[in-house]
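Quick illustration, no need to memorize.
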Amino acid sequence: MSSAQGGGGGAATALAAMLQRLFAAESVDDVRRAIAHGSHVLTAYDTVTIREFHPDGSLEATLRQGAGLGFEAREVERCLRRVALESKRTATTLDRLDDEKEEALVAAYRLHYGLCLVRPLTAYEHPVGVICFHFGDRTTLLDAEFDALRKFCQSAAVALYNAHVRAGLRDLAYTDPLTGLPNRRRLEEEFRVPRGTETSIVLIDFDGLKQVNDTLDYARGDALISLVGAALLESLELGELAVRLGGDEFVFVMPETPARVARARAEEIGHALDSLEVPDDIRPYFRGASVGCATAAPGEDLQVVLRRATDEMHLRKRRRKTDVGDVGPPDA
């Protein structure tokens, strides 16, 4: 972008360091922060914005750092974003735009503010998003700066794409596909977190799944599981974790929750499931839920606490069967 070549060696050294940091980042958010940090080391921008594509094709701003943008800056960015995405190349305020109004807007911005640069982010021929930079009091970058930024953005697109793939695989590994709730593997991970305060566990076992599976079919049983999972998700409070343990069993983890509060929550959850509206063909078999609750002392093994909650749940289930009578064979 400029005939000046000074600082090429320094830019190359900085680029190598920033790439190392970029590819050391694991989570999507960490990669975004590494992109912002690395870009700033290489070019000292005033503002950077990362926008990423949703599956529906829309662009969402996922990170913005630096000075705030006024209306004119946002409009210039919007114009250059369109050009960059259509041309699949870097667009800057040095480019001449075909639209006269947009060209006038870009020229005025270049004169009164400085440089705006927008680069599409593409990895493995897959569009990831765009990254937009604003530089105050500069209308161009040195060739060494521009080349380092170009190479860094190419790698940034790959790092961001890979981070999303890792996140997607993690979601698959830790999410129950039927309800969308975390699964047993996620619960085991949660149980490994050290606890310095009371933690309460609520085990929920809803009644009627076996009868629905046997009398109707497994598709209707899955529909019942999905309904219960949605109801539990709706009843979640801040800080709580709802997990599908498997079959007709679900677990609530309530950090920093004493026994008295947890028992009140368990009663609320049980009441919500007892009054759950289900389809007409399922209604004769669904009989609400049995709920058990136990609270861990600070540092206590949560697996042990889960067993206590399970014992209480089974006790309540036996009482419910005695109180209301059983319909059909007992659940496994």
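The longest helix spans residues 143-174.
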